[in-house]
Amino acid sequence: MKTLREDGLYRHVEFAASKSMSHLILVTWPYNLLVAGSHGSFHFERFGPDTEDMFAWLRGIRVEPSRWASKLVNGRSSVEEYDRDRMVAQINERVAEAVEDGWAPIDLEDAVREEILGSHLLDTKDTAFQLVGEFEHKKTFRPECSCGESGVEGSYDSAASWKYFDHEADRKKHKVTIRQTGGFDFNDFTEWDVDKVSYHFVYQCHAASWAIGQYDAAKAASAPSQREAGAL
Questions:
Q1: How many domains is the chain partitioned into structurally?
Q2: Range scoring the smallest mean pLDDT among 14-28, 29-43, 138-152
Q3: What's this model's pTM, rounded to 2 decimal places?
Q4: What range does the domain containing 94 cover?
Q5: Are 187 and 95 in the same domain?
Q6: Who has the most CB within 10 Å: 58, 59, 80, 122?
Q7: d(CA 162, CA 169)
Q8: Are residues 125 and 138 in the same domain?
């Protein structure tokens, strides 16, 4: 450990490399902590009665990278990355719910497996959401008019055709709506959380916790013992 500056709450401390990193640096000033090194630089800021000294903050909490991310100056999104496994889990959960509740169209699981889970488009977030958003399986629609008449169930195009061409009622007095009556799509996919905090951020959180332990141990070793203090 090498201390380049230690002036109250203003510190700049560097730590010797372990096998998996080239260097680690901790810099503090009131309510702020910078963790830098071979796995990236991350700036934490937290205002509170117990966080003026950010070393004290480090000592008092468990390593929870997902929660620590909310303390970043650049925000949690700066350390998030797409997690394909989470996307697959969301897809499978939605399909399983439809099957268990008894409203899944026939062959839904096979269609999802072939058209989505087997696609390389799941490898990136944007294309994965596009793939999920465009998927539909055996959807049917029914046009219904406020006068009580309705069309035959079929595709959305056939329902729209009935609304505009087959139903001859005065449109000023009749209101036609098109209702989905069957089939499956992922209509709630925009609410899915498919991100995780990055490996490098997780690593630096654990490294910072390790470093504060090294710092405290070095301070304790350099402090005079009670006997030595009495002799002084």
A1: 2
A2: 14-28
A3: 0.76
A4: 84-191
A5: yes
A6: 58
A7: 11
A8: yes
